[in-house]
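Fold these two proteins, one after the other.
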Amino acid sequence: MKARDLMGEIRENIKDYDIEIFEKKARDVNADQASKQRAKFHIQNYNEIMALNIDEEDDANVEIDDGLINDIKDELFRLFEGCSPESEEPFKRFITYSCIYLSVIAKRPLHPVGIDMHNGKTVFAEEKDGETVYYCDIKEEQAKIAKDYYTCQYCVCKPSELKENKI
């Protein structure tokens, strides 16, 4: 599938999501910082997805492996079944297609940069040779404990253990 066609599929699947849910969460004075950060992240991704147009002749209109897209969908299905079966279908669809966008189009982390995942572990970025390289403090430990699903495999982050000059 071409990136342009994939963007059409992504937009079609998230366009009706009630983004106001995230806007309320981002403004909620009682919400914890990580929840607010995730809400803002989802709003940003939604706005990017809805605004991004890839022309037929655009260099970004690359061929994307249908198998990869299906693998991401299947992995996220297992994630929701395993840890959040109560989530509503529109939310599952929004997260699934946002993850596809982040993984194969935007090539950015599946979590917001700077989020405190637990105990100060986070996702962070570093400029290297003019490019942004993303690292995740929990990617490697998640790989070790993953049983039924491992969505981290589709995230562009490198395990922070691979970071050069790690202190």
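Now the second one:
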Amino acid sequence: MKRLYGVSDFIADMQRVTGEESALEAIMERGKPLLRKLLENPDCIPAEFKKRGAMGQGRYMIHREQKFNVNVVVWGPGDGLGPHNHDTWGLIGVLENELQEKRFRRLDDRATVTAARLEFIGTLRNRVGDISCLLPPDDVHAVLNTTDRNTVDIHVYGKDLTGLNRLKFDPDEGTITTFASPKYDNC
């Protein structure tokens, strides 16, 4: 019987990729098919990391190192996050259910830290196996679980987002506020 590709395989492959590549585009290009392969294994993430956290959305660190980290986010029905950036490259793959994603492009010159003009690009319905690629400066999106079940995503980032000052956008008002992701539920 063929052994399924698991998280430890993915981490080893991403360590190889990030050791061989320095260009973010190349890391993402090589990492995307690896994440897709991981998403083919519905049991790659333990059940305890597929539930909502004490504060609602579940956030679990699976692997952390200087060049990349892997975490799981569980979005309950109605959970979401308005337009925001990541300040790092990212690959986000849907493991269970689906997630609505709205993509935006900044039109301003970024001269001010309190205001921005965003252009709405479009809405995606990301389903199991779909991967969203985020590369600054085009890393602004909003996500929402519009279903009645939990959605489980695997996130791979070039930085740990916990405590990282990022930007949240209000497209209607043209304003920016800073925020940082909270601690993970498992560490």
